[in-house]
Amino acid sequence: PAVFTCLAVHPVELGIAGGDNNGMVYLLRLIGRNAGVPYKVPFRIGMGYSAICPKCGSNLNLNAGMLGSQVKCTNPTCNQVMIIDPVAVTINATQTKQEDLKKKRSWW
Fold first, then answer.
1. What is the per-residue pLDDT across 8-23, written as a single tens digit (0 to 9) for each?
2. I need a surface site. Which of 20, 51, 70, 96 has the fewest CB within 10 A?
3. What three-state secondary structure class fits 100?
4. String of b and e for 20-44 (b: at least 16 CB within 10 Å)?
């Protein structure tokens, strides 16, 4: 069976692109969600959650109660409103540094 090895979520257009271990690429469109307010897929690192603001790139530290809710960027010069997806991607904290997450941006 194929296993997703990479995933990218567009913050505004509600699209997902993913690739599997067989080299296949999948383009998905989310239906039933309102466009306009960006959706962010959070990362689970250790016991906490993190998301990157789609506007300014600031790192947002989240708790489990914030998953599935609308939040505002904590950067006072940004204040971008976004919805944090209730599903989080788990990242091994020993392999990924917080600085690396800040470098990852939406590519489309």
1. 877 666 678 888 888 8
2. 70
3. helix
4. eeeeeeeeeeeeeeeeeebbbbbbb
Q: How many residues does the chain have?
A: 108
Tokens of 12: 């505004």
Other Cβ atoms less than 10 A from the Cβ of 53: the count is 22
CA angle 35, 41, 45 (to 5 degrees): 165
H-type alpha helices, the chain: 98-103
Cα 50 to Cα 60: distance, rounded to the nearest angstrom = 5
As a whole number of Å, the CA-based R_g of the chain is: 14
Rounded Cα distance between 107 and 105, Å, is: 6
Torsional sign, CA 44, 50, 52, 58:
negative
